[in-house]
Amino acid sequence: MSTIILATFLVAALLGMPxxxxxxxxxxxxxxxxxxxxxxxxxxxxxxxxxxxxxxIPLFMLAGELMVRGGLAERLIxxxxxxxxxxxxxxxxxxxxxxAGMASVSGAAVADxxxxxxxxxRELSKVYGVGFSAAIVAAAANLAPIIPxxxxxxxxxxxAGSSVSVAGLFMAGVxxxxxxxxxxxxxxxxxxxxxxxxxxxxxxxxxxxLRELWRSWTxxxxxxxxxxxxxxxxxxxxxxxxxxxxxxLLVGLLVTRRLKFKDLPECLLxxxxxTAIVGALIAFASAVTFLVTIDLLPARLAAxxxxxxxxxxxxxxLVAALLxxxGMFMESNAAYIMLVPLFHPIAxxxxxxxxxxxxxxxxxxxxxxxxxxxxxxxxxxxxxANVTMGQIMRHLWPFVAFGxxxxxxxxxxxxxxxxxxxxxxx
Amino acid sequence: xxxxxxTVLARLARGGLAAIxxxxxxxxxxxxxxxxxxxxxxxxxxxGLNQSLDxxxxxxxxxxxxxxxxxxxxxxxxxxxxGMELLTGWLPGSAxxxxxxxxxxxxxxxxxxxxxxxxxxxxxxxxxxxxxxDVSVGLFMLPLAIGAVHSVLHLLAxxxxxxxxxxxxxxx
Lengths: 426, 172
Hints:
In chain A, 78% of the residues lie in helices and 0% in strands. Chain A has 21 helices and no strands. Chain A is globular, with a radius of gyration of 22 Å.
C-alpha cells in the first residue's frame, strides 16, 4: 500500500497537481487496496484539523497582517535605522535588523518577505542595485521561521506529538536565530566594503535612538509580552497568538493609527486562506500518514536506517543531507507533514534530544526556502522586486552558505540549540 | 437556441460562483473573528476575573475548522495551493492547458469523494451533541462537505478555462 501511495503521489505531483491534492489523491487510490472504507478520508482530515495548537497559525498570520496594515513594520525599520547609523551597507543592515524584529512577532517568512520587499526594495535598489537588494530582503525574511514565534515550529511540534513542546522549540531557535542575524550583518558589511557601496543614513546619535525607542516602545514590547508569556507558561502558543492579534490591533488602531476597522475583514480572510494552504496539506497528509502507519512503513524505515548506521551523529547527517535535497524540490510544509511522523520517532530511538532534532529539521527546511528551484521566499521576492531567480542567487549564496555552516555547527554542538530551552526548564 | 446562449450560461455560472465565494468569504471572516475573540476573551477572563468559559475550546476549534475548510476552495480559486512546476513549466501552452485539465479532473474526483463521505458522516452524527454545547457534533464535519463541493466548482471552472489561478502563498 505504501508503494502505491508513494508512486501515485510522485506522478500526480510531477504532473502539476497541488501537493495537498496529490497527497489526498494518493490516499484515495490506496484505500481500496488496503480494504479500508472511504470514510476514513474525511475522518482523518477532520481529526487532524480539529486541534487547538494549530489555531496558532492563523492567529500569528493575522497578527502579521495587522502589523503590516498598521504600519508597525515601518516603525521597526525606523528603529533599526537609528541603531545602525552610517556604517558599511547601512540600509541593508537596517533591513536585516528589521527582518529580525519582524520575525520576533510574525511566524511566517512569506508574510515578512512580502512586507519587507514592498517597503524597502525600491530604496535599497537605488544604493545597491536590485539583485543585492532582493537577496537581502529574502535573507532577512527567512529569519521569521527561526526566531520565535514560528509557524514552521508549530507544525513540526504538532506532527511530532507530545515529545516536543512548542515553547521549547521556540526557545531552541533564539540563539541560532541571533547568531544567524549577526553573521548575515557581518557578511553585508564585508560585501559592502568589498564592492565599495556608498554609505547611507545618519551617524548614530543617542538622542535619535531614544526618540525612536520612545516613539515605538509599544511595538518593541510586543514580542516581550507574547513570547515572554508563552515561555513563562502564562498562556499556550495559541493563546499567545491571540494576544499578539489583540496587541497588534490596538497598536495599529490607537498608536500608529494606520489601521482602519474596514481593513479587518480582508486581514481575517487573507489569514484564513493562507492557513488553508497548510491546512489542506495537513488534512490530506494525515490520511496518508494513517495508511502508511497501518502498513508499518515507519517501523520498516526505522529498521532500514538502523541497519545503515547505529551512530546518532551519522543519522543526523543523513537526515540533514536528505532534507537538503528535499528542501530544494519540495515546499517545506509538505515536507514537515510527510517526513516528521517518519523521522521523529527514529530520532527518539537513537536517543537524540527531541528539541535539538526538531530545530535542525526546521532550520534545514527553512534554508531550503532560499534555494532554487522550489524556494517559496525567492518566488515572493522575485515577483515583488521584479528580478529573476538567477539575479538574486548571484548575491544570496554567501548568506545561504553561512546558514548551512551554522546548521553544521548546530549539528556538532547541540548546546547552541538546546542550551537556552534547557536553562528555562524545557 | 440563440447564438448568445452559452455566453449567457457562462455569465450566470460565473455570477453564481462569485456569489458562493462572497458567502464563503463572509462565513470565513465570521469564523476567524469568533475564533480570535473567544481565545482572547478566555485569556482575559482567566487573568482578569479568574474565570473560564467551558465552551471556549470547543467553539474556537469549531470556528477554526469552518475557517480552514471553507477557505480551501478560495485557495483553489487564487491558485495558492503549492505544487511542483518542474514538468509543467517546460511544456508548451496547449499541452500545459491539457495537462492542467487532466489534473483538475483528478482533483475533482478526489473532492467529490470527500464531499460525499463527509456529508454521510455529518448526517450520521447529526443527533449527537457536542460535549459542552447542545448543538450537533455534525457541525464539525459539515464545512468539510461544503468546502469540498465548493472546491469542485472552482476546479470545474479551471477545467473549462484551462487556466489555473496563480499566487505564491505559504505559512513558513
